[in-house]
Write a structure and sequence with these properties.
Number of helices: 8
Helix content: 40-55%
Number of strands: 5
Number of domains: 1
Strand order of the largest sheet: 2-3-1-4-5
Strand content: 5-15%
Structural class: alpha+beta
Shape: globular
CATH superfamily: Reverse transcriptase/Diguanylate cyclase domain
CATH architecture: 2-Layer Sandwich
Largest sheet: 5 strands, mixed
Oligomer: single chain
Distance between the termini: 37 Å
Length: about 230
Amino acid sequence: MPQAPPPASTPPLFAAVTGDVVRSSRFTGAAIETLQQALRQASNLTEKAFPGLLQGRIHHFRGDGLQFLVTAPSRSPRIALYYLAALKELTAPSPLDLRLSIGIGTVDRIPEEDGSGGDGPAYRVSGRALESMRVQNRFCYSVVPNLMSHDLAASLDGQCGLLGALAENWTSRQSQMVRYALVGCTQAATVKNLAEPVSRQAVAKALDAASWRSVEQSLRIFESISLD
């Protein structure tokens, strides 16, 4: 008796993260190269911090833009914030800010090793959301149609909005401490990782000023949702 064909496998979900530098038009001449160098350095730190979770490298475009694909969508807000924290740390004493848009969905074309050439629904919802983001917003979250309920998607977008509002006020020093906390470093481990002598009390104070507990609680909400 002929056997029925196996059910078609469900395409995996990805998170496409798209971003650009806030008010980048103010940079001219040598300042543009300094900006691009900081973006590349932030990319290198992020790629090393999350091995196996990025599909290819972080792609830079248009001078101030960036895009990358995350293979574990539930981790994408953490990775996006890590990139932002790294950039703010690297651009002391006047930390740069980013607009960031996460799009959850399938992809039609996996990016090349350098991060370019990716395409598909996840990319499209991410790009459209960034283009339509309100001037005062910094971080948004979008999903392809019918992936989850409208209420849940709106709630997650709201969580990202809150994360963006908190991160917008981080100083370079606070961003440095948050960057280590995002990969699970304890305060004692953070002290050991820093090149300059810093007390555990100073680390704790910086994390409190950055509202780290609220940030971590929000990230756990995303990571509790099964999308991977």
